[in-house]
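pasting input
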Amino acid sequence: MVTMTYGEAAKNALREEMHRDPTVWALGEDLRRGGVFGQYKGLPEEFGPERISDAPISEAAIMGVAVGAALGGTRPVVEMRFADFALCAVDELVNQAAKARYMFGGQAKVPLVVREPMGMWRSSAAQHSQSLESWYTHIPGLVVVCPSSPVDNYGLLKSAIRSDDPVVYMEHKNLWALEGEVDNNDPLPLGRRRLLRTGDDLTILSWSATVHEAVAAAATLEKEGASVEVIDLRTLWPWDKERVFDSVKKTGRLIVAHESVQAGGFGAEIAATVSDVLFRDLKAPVKRLGAPRVPIAYAPPLEDTVRVTAAMIAETARVLMKM
Amino acid sequence: MTADPNAPTASGSVAGRNLDLDRLLAHHKLMWRIRAFEEAALRANTEKLVLGAIHPSIGQEGIAVGVCSNLRPDDILASTHRGHGHTLAKGADARAMMRELLGREGGTSHGKGGSMHIADFSVGMLGANGVVAANIHITAGAAQAIKMRGEDRVACSIFGDGAINRGPFLEGLNWAKVFELPALFVCEDNGYASTTRTADMTAGPGPAARAAAIGLPAVEVDGNDVVALDEAVRDAVAAIRAGGGPRFINAKTYRLTGHTAADPDGYRARDDVTAAWTRCPISRLAQTLADAGVRGDRLADHERDAIEEMDAVYDDAKAAPWPPLERAFADVQDVGDPRLDAY
Ligand SMILES: Cc1ncc(C[n+]2csc(CCOP(=O)(O)OP(=O)(O)O)c2C)c(N)n1
Ligand SMILES: [Mg+2]
């Protein structure tokens, strides 16, 4: 059992995977200085500039080269710096990486990890704060992962690197310094939820940084006498349907909370699926809590108006449970 | 050199250059205003009144001034993440700018954009941009609009040397040339892109050669020599306005601070940075003016006045209220306005 930060956990995972497999390498801007969030610190010295490769400010080239290098027999880890900048490379990811295997009839796979740090972080405004995970869930061929803790960032990044599929791997910028215990040296399976708390009255499901709001809300509700189950979905596609169904069958109530815009968000997919499959088990309508459909503002009080908080989750829970 | 207090200041000559001293004094004053604005912004950052990233332009004031003083208020400028100086030089109100940096009511964008999206459309400043090189395409498009409307305006973009490795550099310059648009492209070549030496990640002889290969007349100028840059921009803008199509200027400079206010700048040798201070565009111009006989106290007044002005600007911003929360929902879109339904 070792304590490490969310950022260190990812670095350790990458380091171990690079030792394990000489075809694993990383590319992105400023990587030779350790990455803009320090998440590659020390790796350039350890692996050299070819395997921890700097890049020009050429997102389309970074992504496209990685697709080619994946087809050519290596396992690139792409660093996009901010999820927002990955939008400069959407063709390479969506038209190329996600399609190659299918279009070419299974002749090749694209073992690629695209790290896209996401989310609101210290007044970063409209072009440096977005949570766009739901976009990628819509694209056949892609796996989408949003870890919320050091232990998961460690284990899931390992699995993402070992996966033969292109994985959009979205770390939350507000979590880099979060400390936690990492109690395993093994990859954690993609597509599995983590159960953070068990309960009988309500299931709160979330991913990424909002998981911590869900946990705080559950603690508050517990004090008020409610028994709340909290699920960290971790992988958005594929999502752990069976285990989510099991939970909601037991509790009869579900709130899905996420930082990204609620309209067209992945919460909608979960709500629709659960409502469809578990219609008779539900004691209340499935509730989504996401951001209003507005860009993210710079001024801190305005930024706060679009946050999904523990208080909002708890309030919604009270309404659902008629508390 | 001691100056004659009664010496005329309208023109002078140094080392064979004919100088318009009134113009250069205005440049000196404006460079100090930018410097003092940036210093105040850095203080705001230290005092945690600015939370988001700010990218100071200290050391690069010559480019903001050399370029923008050749643009009319109705000319268009699209800038980068390092846009405070450009915005001020284009004529924006320093108070509104500082309020924007502090996310306050009365900011240029009502506190919704902050430093990296500083903008003032009333003076043709179409915004700093959080996405490197995005302003290149926007400039080409603005120039296309100017041409379609039959106007004699110019669209200008200032971007960094790191931007020339993104697609818009090729695509936007090609577009501007193919359609012979009234566009001026200025590369602010400070040798670095964040923590990376641009030369390490850029093939070939550099920005001007790339632009020339696309067919744009391209010149390379010392961007810290505001006298030289002023002339180069003047000529380029005159040619563009006369219908001569797009032009390119690569202006060499050096940023004297870290990439952002939070950047410890561990990737540059201290000696290099110290040496660069001796090439600072403000002291360069001050020397030129002193050599031409301008009194030292006039130059010192510019510094003092600028610091006083920007101290007041900072105090004003600190005292300004937050924007009302409804602003978070305003100015998103007309059809489907989130003020009516945001979910
Ligand atoms: C498309 C895109 N990629 C990456 C970034 C992150 N980024 C912000 S500034 C910067 C360096 C820009 O260097 P340069 O263009 O030379 O401008 P300078 O900062 O030197 O003024 C980078 C990589 C970004 N904002 N946009
Ligand atoms: Mg640069």
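fyi Chain B has a mean pLDDT of 95.
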